[in-house]
Design goal:
It contains 31 helices and 34 strands. The radius of gyration is 33 Å and the shape is globular. By secondary structure, the protein is of the alpha/beta class. α8 packs parallel to α10 (about 295-300), α13 crosses α14 (about 430-445) and α27 packs parallel to α29 (about 880-895).
Length: about 950
């Protein structure tokens, strides 16, 4: 075989007293054991950290990086004889039209792990770095090899195993379906042409990986790992879906089951990183067999070529690398050429090209030339594509798929609709602005096994006299599209009769039927389709049902169907989830990390489209404060449809001091929500367009003005106007002395209408009643000062008023300055309780007003103080405890339908893992729930009698 490369091999070995020995050889000559005394050991030891930090924070090629490149250049080419040999070899390569391969072998570990990809080109050029030079490659050589090197390219098909690892319990899960789609979409033409096959393992336990490999007679030719990792190993899953750390030795033993393995790609974090700290401290020169990284070990004992990562690459960069690398590999290019093509694509990208992402991938070889892996001259047999029939009626799809940050919920949903779960029906609840895009995303990520997809929005049934008959027509249309056989109802059949026949066929097919917007179903359509939903759920078969809407699954399905259903609740993303998404997708924003939370609170919230636009602006204007872009981004946001059937929580208050500060008060509640891990934003009259807000402050004109004292008639008129606007929480931020039977009757009626009434206790320092606050149906709030009832607080323990105390200013949340010009007292305390009520109620919209009031009182901190020489007990607001009670209630409700794993509970309650974990620990501690082993994974279930309690 003719030589395809011009090799230039360099050995860099560390001796005593900070001395390096450099040897170089090519077919044009050799220079051995050139001493390089006085090399900057400390500076180069920090080189890997510099590279990792620059990539993490998306720094534009910092000057320190060029200094590292200059030092590495001096190490390799500082001796004139070595430089002369390099120049002769490079000239010979150019004369013969061959690429130049610079193969670096470093020892001990700290030398091997240096970022050699940053070495500057000794001949200069606009590319600066040697590995970016045309027809030049910098690769790493293994210090040992324990297997023979295969030399012939593989005849088609090239078998690739794609391993996607994102365990549910990991602190930084990623959207593995997006990553899978990105890789598979690029490889699809090559799969269909028969040149490659791709098997995907997205539940990579060691057992599942062994099962994948055993299904292939000779294993796989390429293994591509995408997931979390370290220098020492990979993060895989247990059979229960939780985190399992696999060290490098264990994983490389698994690779031995692939005797024809040619390449391993570790797209995980730090798989080619520098040695661990304890290896730096120990004598790696004495124990030279230790490997500084899993990539290094793999090329020694398992694969002739390995690609590892020296830093944590953001996912957009990983997608670019995979796209161009595999396209080049499948077209017959050599490994080194494919890696360089991918580097160049990263370097020229408009978003990540100015950063150091291109330097992160490292190519390791075990002595052979990094030539082609696939023999494109051999014939390939095309593969036919699977047939799928789809009918999507009324579906609104978003174009930007990558803007997704609900990986746990998505994984649960895909498992159900793809038939990997025992559940037959998936119930998705949440506001339409969150729910419909999620449903569309689930349908986009269906496996090829699904052959029939029907999506119907409730609007499509409007005016239909027999909605089930209409459904049968749609289903038979899809079935006919699959097999060409016409299906028509017999004369006299109605929808229910025809459905009995259709049901037999549809349950025998790998089908997905989706019904969205169920809260908009008419009474006729709801009654007819309810039977369809129950029959589909109770029938065993391949069909899967998805029900989406703000509805209770118990109202839609037979009680017996509970064990066959899974629930997913979609809530606005809290800041923690948004920040995780930013870290993986747009690290350039991390340069302004201290300002990002302010952008979130200012209105970007969980609108990932706006965060993407912000990242684009920051990339083009790196020194500009990102908060300055928020107003223009918000003003350019497209109008969100007004989902009148799903109104947000609404609150009204009358005090004139808030009239001019309503937006500041809304921002204060939004900040409070963010501080307590509640996603969403509070709307005001001039602030609309949120897909799923926490609440809305109603623009009901206050009856109070500085020039006019409102009468009872004025305030009662204000109450009626507020209630007619759909108020859920009403704050009586006014009062009058003495008893009032009128207000008693009004408050009783409002309580029956499920309005939560909050009133101020007053600040006269006596026990005189303050109406309407002293009405029994009003949750009356007193002022706390230094965690004790203020001396000015009106307090009548005999009347049990106020029932609840709260801080007398708003300094207990950030920012504390929203209402500094409002006098501290029970009014500010009541504003805080109003905010707390909205947050608790937004966590669980199935609560009624009385339940919200009870949660606030039951979770309050009980204490006592001395007043008027008497010991008095009082309750102080505890927002954390109140939110924990509401969230715990969600988990218990989810378990009433049967045992569930941690990840299923996270999806069902719509809570983050960090919020859910301590709640489950508390339920276990008080024996409300217990752990059961279902065989496949650990699950939780209610203890005996807990459901009734």
């Amino acid at each position: 075989m003719a030589m395809n490369f011009e090799n230039f091999d360099v050995d860099v070995l560390a001796g005593r007293r900070n001395q390096l020995w450099v040897s170089a050889r090519s077919r044009l000559g050799a220079v051995y054991a050139v001493p390089r005394p006085g090399w900057p050991e400390e500076e180069l030891r920090e080189a890997g950290t510099t590279l990792r930090d620059a990539v993490l924070h998306a720094d534009v090629v910092p000057e320190e990086t060029r200094q590292i490149g200059k030092m590495l250049q001096e190490v390799l080419f500082g001796d004139p004889e070595v430089l002369a040999l390099f120049q002769r070899t490079r000239g010979a390569a150019a004369d013969l039209g061959r690429p130049l391969i610079v193969r670096v072998l470093g020892a001990p570990h700290e030398i091997a792990a240096l970022p050699w990809e940053l070495i500057l080109d000794p001949e200069g050029g606009s590319h600066e770095f040697l590995t970016l030079a045309p027809a030049a490659h910098v690769i790493r050589c293994a210090r040992a090899r324990t297997f023979p090197i295969p030399t012939r390219p593989i005849e088609p098909p090239l078998h690739i195993l794609l391993v996607l690892s994102s365990p549910e319990d990991n602190t930084l899960p990623f959207d593995l379906y997006e990553e899978k789609r990105s890789v598979l979409s690029e490889l699809a033409p090559l799969v269909h042409s028969g040149r490659i096959t791709v098997d995907v393992e997205e539940r990579p336990s060691m057992e599942n990986l062994r099962r994948c490999i055993s299904r292939r007679t000779r294993g796989y030719h390429v293994v591509h790992y995408l997931g979390h990792a370290s220098q020492a190993g990979l993060i895989l899953e247990t059979r229960m879906g939780t985190v399992r750390e696999i060290d490098a030795v264990q994983f490389t033993r698994l690779l031995h089951s692939c005797p024809e393995l040619r390449l391993v790609v570790y797209a995980g974090c730090l798989t080619a990183g520098p040695p661990l700290e304890d290896e730096f401290e120990s004598s790696s020169r004495d124990n030279w067999k230790l490997s500084p990284s899993i990539a290094d070990l793999s090329v020694r004992v398992a694969a002739p070529a390995v690609i590892g990562m020296q830093a944590v690459l953001p996912f957009p960069t990983q997608r670019i690398f995979a796209r161009f690398f595999y396209s080049a590999l499948a077209s017959g290019r050599g490994l080194a050429d494919a890696v360089q093509l991918a580097r160049t694509a990263i370097r020229s990208d408009e978003f990540v090209g100015s950063y150091l992402d291109w330097a992160v991938p490292s190519l390791f070889v075990a002595g052979a030339d990094p030539g082609p892996v696939l023999d494109i001259s051999a014939p390939a047999t095309p593969v036919s594509r699977p047939v799928r029939r789809e009918l999507k009626l009324g579906l609104e799809e978003e174009e930007e798929r990558s803007l997704f940050a609900r990986p746990s919920s998505l994984r649960q949903a895909v498992n159900v609709v793809s038939g990997r779960s025992s559940a037959r029906t998936l119930v998705i609840t949440g506001a339409p602005g969150l729910r419909t895009p999620f449903v569309a995303r689930v349908l986009d990520d269906l496996t090829d096994d699904v052959s029939l997809v029907l999506y119907v929005h409730a609007r499509e049934f409007a005016g239909a006299p027999d909605p089930v008959l209409l459904l049968c027509e749609w289903v038979t249309e899809l079935l006919t599209g699959l097999d060409g056989r016409d299906r028509q109802p017999q004369p006299g059949w109605n929808g229910a009769t025809w459905w009995k026949r259709v049901l037999e066929e549809i349950t025998a097919s790998p089908a997905v039927l989706v019904f969205d917007g169920l809260e908009d179903l008419s009474e006729i359509a709801s009654e007819g389709l309810r039977g369809v939903f129950r029959e589909l759920t109770l029938r065993s078969g391949q069909a899967r049902l998805v029900l989406a809407g703000l509805v209770d699954r118990d109202d839609l399905l037979d009680p017996r169907a509970g064990r066959y259903t899974k629930l997913i609740t979609l809530r606005p993303l809290e800041w923690e989830s948004v920040f995780r998404w930013i870290r993986w997708n747009f690290p350039e924003l991390l340069r302004h990390e201290d300002r990002l939370l302010a952008c979130y609170k200012a209105g970007l919230q969980d609108d990932l489209t706006l965060w993407t636009r912000l990242a684009e602006k920051v990339a083009s204007q790196p020194t500009t404060d990102p908060i300055g872009h928020v107003p223009s981004l918000l003003s350019a946001r497209p109008e969100i449809p007004d989902y009148t059937s799903v109104p947000p929580l609404r609150a009204a208050l009358a005090h004139p001091d808030v009239a001019g500060k309503v937006e500041a008060f809304a921002d204060w509640i939004t900040t409070l929500a963010s501080d307590h891990k509640v996603g969403g934003r509070v709307l005001t009259p001039g602030r609309t367009g949120e897909p799923s807000p926490i609440a809305e402050l109603l623009p009901v004109e206050s009856p109070f003005t500085p020039q006019y004292t409102a009468t009872d008639g004025d305030t009662l008129g204000w109450v009626n106007r507020a209630v007619s606007e759909g108020t859920n929480v009403l704050l009586f931020d006014f009062g009058r002395p003495g008893h009032s039977e009128i207000w008693n009757r009004v408050c009783s009626r409002l309580k029956q209408d499920q309005v939560l009434l909050i009133g101020i206790g007053g600040d006269t320092g006596d026990t005189e009643p303050n109406y309407p606050g002293w009405c029994k149906d009003v949750l009356t709030v007193g002022a706390l000062a230094n965690n004790q009832p203020a001396r000015s607080a009106t307090w009548d323990p005999a009347a049990r008023k106020p029932e609840l105390f709260a801080p007398n200013d708003l300094a207990w949340a950030d920012p504390p300055h929203a209402f500094v010009d409002i006098r501290p007292g029970s009014y500010q305390a009541a504003l805080g309780v109003l905010a707390a009520a909205l947050l608790v109620w937004s966590v669980d919209r199935s609560l009624d007003a009385e339940q919200v009031r009870k949660i606030l009182l039951d979770t309050a901190r009980q204490s006592s103080t001395t007043r008027d020489s008497k010991r008095r007990r009082f309750r102080a607001l505890d927002l954390d405890a109140a939110l924990a009670r509401a969230r715990t209630r969600l988990l218990v409700k989810a378990l009433e339908h049967g045992p569930a794993s941690r990840r299923e509970l996270v999806a069902a309650a719509g809570l983050s893992r960090t919020v859910t974990r301590p709640l489950l620990e508390g339920l276990l501690a008080d024996r409300t729930i217990r752990v059961v082993d279902s065989g496949d994974e650990k699950k939780f279930e209610l203890s005996d009698g807990a459901a009734a309690a």
